[in-house]
Amino acid sequence: MTTASVIIIGAGISGITAAKELAEKGVEDVLILEATDRIGGRIQKQSFGDVSVELGAGWIAGVGGKESNPVWELASRLNLRTCFSDYTNARYNIYDRSGEIFPTGFAADSYKKAVDSAIQKLKSLEAECDGQEAEEAPSSPKTPIELAIDFILHDFEMAEVEPISTYVDFGEREYLVADERGYESLLYKMAEGFLYTSDGNILDNRLKLNKVVREVQQSRNGVVVKTEDGSEYEANYVIVSASIGVLQSNLISFQPPLPKWKTEAIQKCDVMVYTKIFLKFPHCFWPCGPGQEFFIYAHEQRGYFTFWQHMENAYPGSNILVVTLTNEQSKRVESQSDEETLKEAMSVLRDMFGPTIPYATDILVPRWWNNRFQRGSYSNYPMISDNQLQRNVKAPFGRILFTGEHTSEKFSGYVHGGYLAGMDTSKTLLEEMKQSLLLQPLLAFTE
Ligand code: FAD
Predict the structure, then answer these.
(1) Is pLDDT of 97 > 70?
(2) C-alpha radius of gyration, the chain, whole number
C-alpha cells in the first residue's frame, strides 16, 4: 500500500494550492489523487474554432480594489492575456423577439425596477428570518424584459442587490482570460514549483491521475483511501477538495459515516449549474462596436438563451458567439443532443438578427451537471443563511479536512475562493500536525 503524510483528493485550484503550500512548508510526501486525466478541475480550456475557449472559469473577478486578488497576481506573473469585460452595457442591448432593441430609457427603467424589487425581496426575507412581518410583497417579474433583467441580476451579477465580498475586497472589475495557454496554465505554473515536470508535463509520481476515490476509511491511527481501480493508499491525513455537488452525490463514501451536522450542511448548500455554449460562424453578423460585447434576448421563458457575448474583443476574427444558460435550462440542454440545442440557438439568433444569418458551423456544449466528478458548476449558499452552515461544510471530521471553493467563507463560487481555501486548509493542517507532534511524547509517556 502506498503511504504518504497527506492525501489530497482532487487536483483543482484548491487541491494544487494546498499541496504546494504543504510541500513548501516541509510536508513533501503528499499524494494527489485526481479522478480525471488532467489537473485543473473546473478550470479547463478546449480548442474550438482555432482558438482556446474556457469551458469552466473564464473570468478573473475582483480586480482594481483596495486589496490585490491573489489569482490576478498569479496571472500577472504569468503574463496571462486578459480582456476587460464591461457588463454594464448589456442592459442597453436588449432585443425583443422581433429583433428590436428596447429604447435605452425603457431598459434603464426596467433595470432600476428589477434592482429595487430585488432589494425589497431581500429585506422581506431578512424580516421574515428575524420573525418580523414583511412590509410589502415584492412584485415578481412578468414581461420578457423584466424576466431577462431578473435573470441577469440573480443568475449573474448580484452585486447590485447584495454587497459581494469579492467586489468589496478586490474590486469590481472583471477580466476575461483570452490566452491560448488557458486559465489552467496558472495551475501548471503552481505545480511546477513543487512537482517534477518536463516539457510542461507533470511526471512526478506524487500526482496520480485517473484515480477515482470511492472510499475514505478513517481510524484512530490514520486514513485509508480506496479508488475505483482497486488501489489503496494510506496517510495520516486526507484533504477532500471534490466539489459540493460530488459530496452531495455520494460518489465518495466515508467510514465511519460523516456526522449528521456535516451531511446536513452539505445537502443544504445549493449547486449552481452554469453553461457557456460556444457557436462558431463563417462570419460576424452581430454588432461589434464599443459597448456591444454583451447582449440580451428577452423571451417569455426566464433564462431561455438570454445572455450573449461575442468573442471579437477577446479573439478578433474568431467569429464565435457564447450564450450562457443556467440551472434548469442548463440541465435541459445537457440532456438533449447538441443538434437540438443548435437549432434552438439559431432560432433565437434569427429572432434577433433576421432570417438570412448564416448557420453556425460548430457548437460546443459543456456538461457540468452530468459530469460525475463535478455535478454542477459552483456552490451557491442561500442568500440568507447563517454562517454556521458554511462553517460546518468546511469543518474537519477527525483526520479528514475539507477544502474547495465551497469552503471559502467570503469567496465561495470563485477561482480565488478555491485558491484561498487551499491556502487556509493547508494552514489548518500544518497547525494540527504541529500540535500532534507536540502531543506525541506526552501520549507515549501515558501509554
Ligand atoms: P475543482 O476545480 O472542482 O477541483 C476538484 C477536483 O476534484 C476536480 O479536478 C475533480 O475531477 C476532482 N474529483 C472529484 N471527485 C473526485 C474523486 N472521487 N476522486 C478523485 N478526484 C475527484 N470562477 C471564477 O472565479 N470566475 C469565473 O468566471 C467562473 N466561471 C465559471 C464557469 C463555469 C462553467 C464553472 C463550472 C465554474 C466557474 N467558476 C468561475 C468557478 C471556479 O471554476 C471554481 O470555483 C473553482 O475552479 C473550483 O476549484 P476547486 O479546487 O474548489 O474545485
Answers:
(1) yes
(2) 23
